[in-house]
Amino acid sequence: MSDTVINIKKEGVTYLKLNRPEKFNSFNKEMAFELQKQLDDCIRDEHTRAIVLTGEGKAFCAGQDLAEVTNPELNPGFKSILEDHYNPIITRIRNIEIPVIAAVNGVAAGAGANIALACDVVVASETASFIQAFSKIGLIPDSGGTYFLPRLIGFQRASALALLGDKIEANEAERIGMIYKYFSPENFKDEVDHLAQKLASMPTKALAFTKKALNKTFSNSLEEQLAIESEYQIASAQTQDYNEGVTAFMEKRTPKFKGK
Q: pTM of the predicted model, to two decimals?
């Protein structure tokens, strides 16, 4: 196991911490493949009911390590970087049937920003920032940036940020709907832990169906989306957690969901 991604398990939550702090957690080939592996391990781990993706040190993730792409002996080429490194991370985050929280502890730039925005719930420290840094070096946003950003904040803002590469501070990111919430640096860890534990204690199957429905909403017509809601609602009603939720409501007690 590579030490480029730290794995910590706690009460139904798996914390995945990008661990190249000396490089602001920028991605190289090793870290990209290790994150994919760790996400796959979470899929197989029946005890993991929520995932927190964060960064070690001062940064969340500064995107691609340019030292790798400028070294002829290390550079895998952009086709491989996108198709083998980043795109599989994005598809895993969207398809994994448990909630993924991006806990953005510092700067999130380039692919680092867009990996965060692909997560189900994005929270940030007040000291964090988001930068679509691609245009500054003659590239275009990748890792789902042209997909998620317009859907989160609208076409005009997304276009301006992609073209200009402006830095967005955490409070502004919350205001424009880029992220869910931001917290003070002093409270950030506790707030992230509280959010993760809350999601881990919820009906996991229903959350998975919700996630799958949201994945389809931008490509479906209203009629198609209504049909998806019907399909997934019927499936949710067959779960043990639904029975527990209804029983607990009738008995006026807190439900004890088991994710089944």
A: 0.94
